Amino acid sequence: MPRDPSNKLSQHIQGLIAINTVSKSDVKEIFRLCRLVLEHDKKKPSYPTLSLYCDWLQHNFLDHNSVALNVLYRLAVVKKTYEDDTGKFINAVSGVFGLKELRREMIALFQVKGIQFESLLCSISKWEFIGNTLLDALAGVPIAIPKLPTRRKKPYKDIVERMLPLSAGHGRIPYAVEIVDRTRKAEEPGRPAGYYWQIRLDPPEAPFSAFLDGHLQGTESKLAFLLP
Known about the structure:
By secondary structure, the chain is an alpha+beta fold. The protein contains nine helices and four strands, in the order ααααααααβαβββ.
Protein backbone atom coordinates (compact mmCIF):
# COMPACT_ATOMS: atom_id res chain seq x y z
CA MET A 1 0.00 0.00 0.00
CA PRO A 2 1.38 3.47 -0.86
CA ARG A 3 2.71 5.42 2.10
CA ASP A 4 0.21 7.87 3.61
CA PRO A 5 1.28 11.39 2.51
CA SER A 6 -0.51 12.94 5.50
CA ASN A 7 2.72 12.72 7.50
CA LYS A 8 4.63 14.70 4.89
CA LEU A 9 1.90 17.34 4.83
CA SER A 10 1.96 17.57 8.63
CA GLN A 11 5.75 17.84 8.72
CA HIS A 12 5.72 20.55 6.05
CA ILE A 13 3.12 22.60 7.92
CA GLN A 14 4.90 22.18 11.26
CA GLY A 15 8.14 23.34 9.64
CA LEU A 16 6.46 26.50 8.38
CA ILE A 17 4.95 27.19 11.79
CA ALA A 18 8.35 26.73 13.42
CA ILE A 19 10.04 29.38 11.26
CA ASN A 20 6.88 31.55 11.15
CA THR A 21 7.21 32.34 7.46
CA VAL A 22 5.83 31.07 4.15
CA SER A 23 7.40 31.30 0.68
CA LYS A 24 5.80 30.86 -2.73
CA SER A 25 7.41 27.44 -3.11
CA ASP A 26 6.02 26.48 0.32
CA VAL A 27 2.50 27.36 -0.82
CA LYS A 28 2.80 25.22 -3.95
CA GLU A 29 4.12 22.36 -1.83
CA ILE A 30 1.11 22.63 0.51
CA PHE A 31 -1.27 22.14 -2.41
CA ARG A 32 0.84 19.37 -3.96
CA LEU A 33 0.76 17.45 -0.69
CA CYS A 34 -2.96 18.14 -0.17
CA ARG A 35 -3.59 16.63 -3.58
CA LEU A 36 -1.64 13.50 -2.66
CA VAL A 37 -3.59 13.19 0.60
CA LEU A 38 -6.97 13.53 -1.14
CA GLU A 39 -5.99 10.98 -3.78
CA HIS A 40 -4.59 8.56 -1.21
CA ASP A 41 -7.71 8.78 0.95
CA LYS A 42 -10.06 8.87 -2.07
CA LYS A 43 -11.63 11.99 -0.56
CA LYS A 44 -11.56 14.41 -3.50
CA PRO A 45 -15.40 14.55 -3.67
CA SER A 46 -15.49 15.57 0.01
CA TYR A 47 -13.26 18.59 -0.66
CA PRO A 48 -14.34 19.75 -4.14
CA THR A 49 -12.89 23.28 -4.02
CA LEU A 50 -9.54 22.20 -2.57
CA SER A 51 -9.41 19.35 -5.08
CA LEU A 52 -10.10 21.79 -7.91
CA TYR A 53 -7.26 24.13 -6.96
CA CYS A 54 -4.84 21.24 -6.36
CA ASP A 55 -5.64 19.90 -9.83
CA TRP A 56 -5.62 23.33 -11.47
CA LEU A 57 -2.08 24.00 -10.22
CA GLN A 58 -0.82 20.89 -12.02
CA HIS A 59 -1.99 21.94 -15.50
CA ASN A 60 -1.50 24.56 -18.18
CA PHE A 61 -5.08 24.03 -19.43
CA LEU A 62 -7.81 22.45 -17.34
CA ASP A 63 -10.62 20.83 -19.31
CA HIS A 64 -11.16 17.36 -17.81
CA ASN A 65 -12.04 18.05 -14.19
CA SER A 66 -15.79 17.70 -13.53
CA VAL A 67 -15.68 20.31 -10.76
CA ALA A 68 -13.89 22.70 -13.15
CA LEU A 69 -16.53 22.18 -15.84
CA ASN A 70 -19.19 22.85 -13.23
CA VAL A 71 -17.47 26.21 -12.59
CA LEU A 72 -18.34 27.14 -16.18
CA TYR A 73 -21.95 26.07 -15.66
CA ARG A 74 -22.19 28.10 -12.45
CA LEU A 75 -20.82 31.12 -14.33
CA ALA A 76 -23.55 30.67 -16.93
CA VAL A 77 -26.17 30.65 -14.16
CA VAL A 78 -24.66 33.79 -12.59
CA LYS A 79 -24.58 35.54 -15.97
CA LYS A 80 -28.25 34.75 -16.54
CA THR A 81 -29.29 35.67 -12.99
CA TYR A 82 -27.50 39.03 -12.80
CA GLU A 83 -27.42 40.13 -16.44
CA ASP A 84 -29.06 43.43 -15.47
CA ASP A 85 -26.98 44.14 -12.35
CA THR A 86 -23.26 44.53 -13.01
CA GLY A 87 -22.26 44.94 -9.37
CA LYS A 88 -24.01 41.79 -8.19
CA PHE A 89 -22.72 39.93 -11.25
CA ILE A 90 -19.08 40.78 -10.45
CA ASN A 91 -19.51 39.74 -6.82
CA ALA A 92 -21.25 36.52 -7.77
CA VAL A 93 -18.55 35.57 -10.30
CA SER A 94 -15.91 36.08 -7.62
CA GLY A 95 -17.95 33.78 -5.39
CA VAL A 96 -17.83 31.01 -8.00
CA PHE A 97 -14.04 30.88 -7.60
CA GLY A 98 -14.67 29.73 -4.04
CA LEU A 99 -11.70 31.22 -2.20
CA LYS A 100 -13.71 31.30 1.04
CA GLU A 101 -14.68 27.66 0.56
CA LEU A 102 -11.07 26.79 -0.23
CA ARG A 103 -9.85 28.02 3.16
CA ARG A 104 -12.71 26.28 4.98
CA GLU A 105 -12.02 22.98 3.22
CA MET A 106 -8.32 23.23 4.04
CA ILE A 107 -9.18 23.83 7.70
CA ALA A 108 -11.54 20.84 7.65
CA LEU A 109 -8.89 18.57 6.10
CA PHE A 110 -6.21 19.69 8.54
CA GLN A 111 -8.58 19.12 11.46
CA VAL A 112 -9.33 15.58 10.29
CA LYS A 113 -5.60 14.89 9.95
CA GLY A 114 -4.71 16.49 13.28
CA ILE A 115 -2.53 19.11 11.60
CA GLN A 116 -2.09 22.45 13.31
CA PHE A 117 -3.46 25.14 11.03
CA GLU A 118 -4.30 28.24 13.09
CA SER A 119 -1.17 30.29 12.41
CA LEU A 120 -1.49 29.74 8.64
CA LEU A 121 -5.16 29.55 7.80
CA CYS A 122 -6.51 31.80 10.54
CA SER A 123 -3.97 34.56 9.98
CA ILE A 124 -5.25 37.24 7.61
CA SER A 125 -1.79 38.23 6.39
CA LYS A 126 -0.62 34.65 5.78
CA TRP A 127 -3.87 33.63 4.09
CA GLU A 128 -3.68 36.68 1.82
CA PHE A 129 -0.14 35.63 0.88
CA ILE A 130 -1.28 32.06 0.23
CA GLY A 131 -4.23 33.29 -1.86
CA ASN A 132 -2.14 35.73 -3.88
CA THR A 133 0.54 33.11 -4.51
CA LEU A 134 -2.15 30.71 -5.69
CA LEU A 135 -3.73 33.28 -8.02
CA ASP A 136 -0.31 34.28 -9.37
CA ALA A 137 0.46 30.64 -10.21
CA LEU A 138 -2.93 30.14 -11.88
CA ALA A 139 -2.94 33.38 -13.91
CA GLY A 140 -3.21 32.54 -17.60
CA VAL A 141 -4.23 28.92 -16.98
CA PRO A 142 -7.79 28.60 -18.31
CA ILE A 143 -10.59 26.33 -17.26
CA ALA A 144 -12.08 25.64 -20.67
CA ILE A 145 -14.27 23.54 -22.90
CA PRO A 146 -12.06 22.15 -25.70
CA LYS A 147 -12.34 22.67 -29.45
CA LEU A 148 -14.32 20.48 -31.81
CA PRO A 149 -14.43 17.52 -32.34
CA THR A 150 -13.47 16.82 -28.70
CA ARG A 151 -16.33 19.03 -27.55
CA ARG A 152 -18.84 16.52 -28.94
CA LYS A 153 -17.74 13.97 -26.36
CA LYS A 154 -19.02 13.57 -22.84
CA PRO A 155 -18.84 15.42 -20.48
CA TYR A 156 -18.27 18.48 -22.70
CA LYS A 157 -21.39 17.95 -24.79
CA ASP A 158 -23.48 17.62 -21.63
CA ILE A 159 -22.16 20.81 -20.02
CA VAL A 160 -22.70 22.83 -23.23
CA GLU A 161 -26.26 21.52 -23.54
CA ARG A 162 -26.92 22.50 -19.91
CA MET A 163 -25.60 26.02 -20.49
CA LEU A 164 -27.20 26.86 -23.84
CA PRO A 165 -30.73 27.39 -22.39
CA LEU A 166 -29.18 30.08 -20.17
CA SER A 167 -27.76 32.04 -23.12
CA ALA A 168 -30.95 34.02 -23.93
CA GLY A 169 -30.95 32.50 -27.43
CA HIS A 170 -27.71 34.08 -28.66
CA GLY A 171 -25.56 31.00 -27.92
CA ARG A 172 -22.95 32.90 -25.93
CA ILE A 173 -21.97 30.87 -22.89
CA PRO A 174 -18.83 30.65 -20.74
CA TYR A 175 -16.55 28.47 -22.88
CA ALA A 176 -13.53 29.41 -20.78
CA VAL A 177 -12.52 31.40 -17.73
CA GLU A 178 -9.08 32.38 -16.52
CA ILE A 179 -7.39 34.55 -13.93
CA VAL A 180 -5.57 37.62 -15.22
CA ASP A 181 -2.73 39.24 -13.28
CA ARG A 182 -3.15 43.00 -13.26
CA THR A 183 -1.32 43.59 -9.98
CA ARG A 184 1.31 45.67 -11.75
CA LYS A 185 -1.09 47.66 -13.92
CA ALA A 186 -1.84 51.29 -13.22
CA GLU A 187 -5.18 51.68 -11.48
CA GLU A 188 -8.11 53.02 -13.47
CA PRO A 189 -11.37 54.45 -12.12
CA GLY A 190 -13.35 51.51 -10.80
CA ARG A 191 -10.62 49.04 -11.80
CA PRO A 192 -8.02 48.72 -9.05
CA ALA A 193 -4.78 46.83 -9.55
CA GLY A 194 -5.13 43.17 -8.61
CA TYR A 195 -6.26 39.83 -9.98
CA TYR A 196 -9.16 39.73 -12.42
CA TRP A 197 -11.28 37.04 -14.00
CA GLN A 198 -11.95 36.90 -17.73
CA ILE A 199 -14.75 34.85 -19.29
CA ARG A 200 -14.69 33.85 -22.97
CA LEU A 201 -18.22 33.71 -24.43
CA ASP A 202 -17.54 32.08 -27.80
CA PRO A 203 -16.12 28.65 -28.71
CA PRO A 204 -12.32 28.37 -28.96
CA GLU A 205 -12.34 27.83 -32.72
CA ALA A 206 -14.24 31.11 -33.33
CA PRO A 207 -12.01 33.76 -34.96
CA PHE A 208 -13.25 36.38 -32.51
CA SER A 209 -14.88 36.25 -29.12
CA ALA A 210 -16.73 38.46 -26.71
CA PHE A 211 -15.25 38.60 -23.21
CA LEU A 212 -16.44 39.62 -19.77
CA ASP A 213 -14.01 40.57 -17.04
CA GLY A 214 -14.02 41.93 -13.54
CA HIS A 215 -12.03 42.31 -10.35
CA LEU A 216 -11.65 39.03 -8.43
CA GLN A 217 -12.83 39.73 -4.90
CA GLY A 218 -11.80 37.13 -2.35
CA THR A 219 -11.61 39.13 0.85
CA GLU A 220 -13.32 37.74 3.94
CA SER A 221 -14.29 39.77 6.96
CA LYS A 222 -11.96 39.78 9.97
CA LEU A 223 -14.60 37.86 11.92
CA ALA A 224 -14.22 34.96 9.50
CA PHE A 225 -10.64 34.50 10.66
CA LEU A 226 -11.55 33.94 14.29
CA LEU A 227 -10.67 30.41 15.32
CA PRO A 228 -13.57 28.02 14.60
